[in-house]
Protein: FAM3C protein
Amino acid sequence: IGAAKLIVVVAIFLLTFYVISQVFEIKMEANLGHIFARSALDAAARSTKPPRYKCGISKACPEKHFAFKMASGAANVVGPKICVEDNVLMSAVKNNVGRGINVALVNGKTGEPLDTKFFDMWGGDVAPFIEFLKSIQDGTIVLMGTYDDGATKLNDEARKLIAELGSTSIANLGFRDNWVFCGGKGIKTKSPFEQHIKNNKDTNKYEGWPEVVEMEGCIPQKQD
Structure:
């Protein structure tokens, strides 16, 4: 009788061990399956995630070109933003923008930032802006964006100097128009990089201002 009990106990023990081991293996397989499935999903997500280009533009620039993206101000609330080669040169976050015309200068050969300034064309004086425009060196990339109002104090001399940088819209820039422009000192042709929206109470997105204008592109590197 004792031997029979021992055999039963051993059998129960072995059966219990077998069941536990089977359950454990199933759990292990399920966990491993879950891990592999997650890895596969993560890999798929990484492979399908769209690539990010400099300044967040929609496609990569070719060799010997500088990527840029810019936006005008939004009414008198959010300032403009200018980015070149993944370097945010001017923005509300950097706290270096202001009412009027915001200007960023970039070295046309290296893409390195040279200067940033804003000129109040509502309550300020156009004379310092004119002097600044005259001081820009040949081969410099010039990016401009309006905020609030960029036109009231502009005179013919200032408009002519901006036109010489490649702008075609500056002659028609009016009170509270939104405008972004990228040109260069010494440019021989009109710049293809310019956006202009007129202030029109019938079409304005904001009560007294038109919608924000945005622009992106690839600036050719200056060659010797």
In short: The chain has two domains: 1-45, 54-220. The chain has three helices and nine strands. The mean pLDDT is 87. Residues 1-45 form one domain.
